[in-house]
Amino acid sequence: MTTDAFPALSLVPKAEALQTAKDFKSDQEVRWCPGCGDYAILSTVQSFLPDLGLKRENIVFVSGIGCSSRFPYYLDTFGLHSIHGRAPAIATGLATSRPDLSVWVITGDGDALSIGGNHLIHALRRNVNLKILLFNNRIYGLTKGQYSPTSERGKITKSSPQGSLDYSFNPVSLALGAEATFVARTIDSDRKHLTEVLTAAAGHEGTALVEIYQNCNIFNDNAWEPLKDTDTRDDLMMRLVHGEPIRFGKEQEKGVMRKADGHLEVVEVAKVGLDNIISHDAHAKDPGLAFALSRLSNPRTLENTPIGVFRDITRPSYDRLMREQIAEVTESQGSGDLQTLLFGNDTWAVS
Amino acid sequence: MSKQVVQLNRVVIRFAGDSGDGMQLTGDRFTSETAGMGNDLSTLPDFPAEIRAPAGTLPGVSAFQLHFADHDIMTPGDSPNVLVAMNPAALKANLHDVPRGADIIVNTDEFTKRNLVKVGYETNPIEDGSLDQFKVHPIALTSMTVEALKEFEISKKEAERAKNMFALGLLCWLYHRPTEGTVEFLKAKFGKNPEIMKANLRAFEAGWSYGETTEEFSVQYEINPAPMKAGTYRNMSGNLALAYGLIAASKLSGLNLFLGSYPITPASDILHELSRHKRFGVMTFQAEDEIAGVGAAIGASYGGALGVTTTSGPGVALKSEAIGLAVSLELPLLVVDVQRGGPSTGLPTKTEQSDLLQAMFGRNGEAPVPIVAPQSPSDCFFAAIEAARIAITYRTPVFLLSDGYLANGSEPWCVPDVSLLAKIDPNFATELNHEAADGTMEFWPYLRDPETLARPWAIPGTAGLEHRIGGIEKADGAGTISYDADNHDKMVRLRQAKVDAIARTIPELVVDDPDGDARVLIMGWGSTYGPIGAACRLVRAEGKSVAQIHLRHVNPFPSNLETILKSYDRVILPEMNLGQLSMLLRAKYLVDIIGYNQVRGMPFKSDELATVINDVLESM
């Protein structure tokens, strides 16, 4: 793959030599729990980054707090491990002021959706040139097992011995409601799909939100197991591909149909006919279809769970707009002269 | 009719009216004309937090005080010689500050039964003799303005709104102010609405002519220009000076200026101003909240920009964790706190110095942050550059503690020659800096400069210097994660030592003691410089001796501070808080500071501080 495949990265300097995954491994010992889903994601990201063909020193990973937020330490790029929930804000300042960088945010369901919820939604609506990887394991891991904003209601945890009362967020629905221009979902253990989604995100100008279903084998083991188990996954999970009919099931026997009242429903293809199965349109200007798809899944049983790119539309990024505004003003007014500025228009002389 | 002209050496005028009466604009215009006359001046806007409180009520009164003189002055004046009261509320709210014998110009049209009752006047003070000790000038400002504008095709309401220009015209006549500037100003301001523009010009002229013809004023006053050092001057307010100082720091360091900010009174004007200067490459980011403002600034600093966040006390509280991150990351960051009355929402439009301890200690862990405090509106320019110098040189967040009085007050400023301003070297790291055990070179992000203890600032895009840093404790030198007990103890001490080392580059304090025999020292920090200095003059004019020092660097302290404090019998420290700097000095130097503290939302008055000094002198 050549870097020309990523017009959104056109301002980031290209590597002169071919890179390998090894080039992106730092010398730090990885300290996640054995069996953590983060290992798979790290390995995939390290293998994927050479595809971008960017200079390593022009890639920055910014994270908040939580297990996932240790991610930057393990990549031999620039890395900034910040404070809880604030990574999107910090990355916004960095990406806005440095168009020559590829900036990635690593966050989790607690970091992004609880303490950092405000920064997440505002980064999404601004469309800052950030790629946000949200590791969703439906639990607080680093603080040892409290329910998170994506935990199912009724979940028994250390802080909810009688069951959590919180209704959960659907991160994809939330992002679409926050005016996101790119929203996708993938799974830690599906290396191929994860790579495809990361590739699409990297090529997107503006903020890309990638929700990654990730397993915490210590505090919430097998949370996504039905989507990974070869016996069940094909019945539960639909893979969204732009332009193709939305079908799933072991025999592709199920599909998504739009009912007369406008809402989407999972139907048997044989009963309604293939013509009535809708095709996925990730580039639709209106987020309605993407949102309706995001609502199909059952958060408890994981039935009808779409993965893939829900939405990928074109809207100028915040940092590009800021650069253009500065350039326009400088073009029309000339670049600023400090002495002239200080004098202003209303001076008097004392001799 | 030719009138008697009387020379004065100084005048304090206070314009007071309803929030919608345009008193701030009137004051600004009079100030501009006065600046152009070459008088020294100092201003104090005082307005409510409500944009438009109910008309005619006490909470809705907005005032602007201007002190101008034929000599150098240090404060906006303790009490007005002239009060312009546009309605009964303005009279009632300000009368207690007006000394006996002062002039009071009242707009009689507004002294209706209804308006009087609104503020609790049972009888009309203009008529009931209660103002006999003042020189009251009852003038029908509104109806004369409406009469003067009857030929214009504007509504009565629009005509009435021009009454502030009538008042301005009158005051300009009374004090021999030029009018060209205001004429130009009105032409520009109402350029899109020629009828309103002409009406305001006519009201302004009518006010002037009224002064010339009326028998109400038999005397016109002149105040000669003040002797000032040669140079080109302009009027300068604190927030404007601060914004310009940030742009200057950007130029002097060659770093792009990135402001991450959330609107908050009284700091928002800095955001407004900087957003107008994109041609200087200034990036302004209006964040979703205070935390995002500082977060984005930290991100920009990480990328090699001059990251700045501007706020007031409540915003600092929200930013605290992020400022601690900047302490740990050891990245340059400017945190501008334009202090206001607290706690909580407090008094948003009033001044106070009560965030000092928050700036010093308001973070978890041992997280020292240098503090710079400007001492006058125009000094905000130089203080901003100094704060940037410290931040960039020492890779540290720096607090710039302005306040509401400095922010909105103004004074003449001798515009500096920018070619004489010292450059700031960001000194980015570009090379590997440490030899590993196997002889290969590597990059250690926390290998310190032995002189400044600053760490290398290696920005993304620098080949070979890829590294990872964060808020977790780092190993001394290598910068990798370290939970080692001895290392943490060392790092905490190193961060403190780095901030302490800044004192080596801070100028020593110079004591102002003209007589050389003072036994009492009065000191302050930040915006109290003017009132304290003016108080010293009053005391010295009585033939007594008092010494003065003023801190621009509040953390670390200048290196000779302890010696100075210990060489006086008494040390007085006025603060607009309950004794925050006093507490720091007592703790650090075991010096028995005599605090003088008030939190009234207004700057100290110089005669009040003179009394404090005299009381101490008499007690010895």
Structural features, described:
The complex is a heterodimer of chains A (351) and B (620). Chain A is α/β, with parallel strands linked by helices. Chain A has a domain at 1-222 and 315-323: Thiamin diphosphate (ThDP)-binding fold, Pyr/PP domains (Rossmann fold). Chain A has helices at 37-52, 87-97, 109-115, 117-126, 171-177, 191-202, 225-228, 233-236, 269-272, 288-294, 318-333, 338-343, and strands spanning 59-63, 78-81, 102-108, 130-136, 182-187, 208-213, 237-240, 247-248, 254-258, 264-268, 305-312, 347-350. The longest helix of chain A has 16 residues, at 37-52. The N and C termini of chain A lie far apart (70 Å). In chain A, 48% of the residues are buried. Chain B is of the alpha/beta class. Chain B contains 20 helices and 24 strands. Chain B has a seven-stranded mixed sheet with strand order 11-10-12-13-15-14-22, with helices on both faces. In chain B, strand 14 (371-372), helix 14 and strand 15 (397-403) form a beta-alpha-beta unit. Chain B is globular, with a radius of gyration of 27 Å. In chain B, 54% of the residues are buried. The chains are: A alpha/beta (351), B alpha/beta (620). Strand 12 (347-350) of chain A pairs antiparallel with strand 9 (231-237) of chain B, so a sheet runs across the interface.
Task: Give a short overview.
Chain A is an alpha/beta fold and 351 residues long. Chain A has helices at 37-52, 87-97, 109-115, 117-126, 171-177, 191-202, 225-228, 233-236, 269-272, 288-294, 318-333, 338-343, and strands at residues 59-63, 78-81, 102-108, 130-136, 182-187, 208-213, 237-240, 247-248, 254-258, 264-268, 305-312, 347-350.
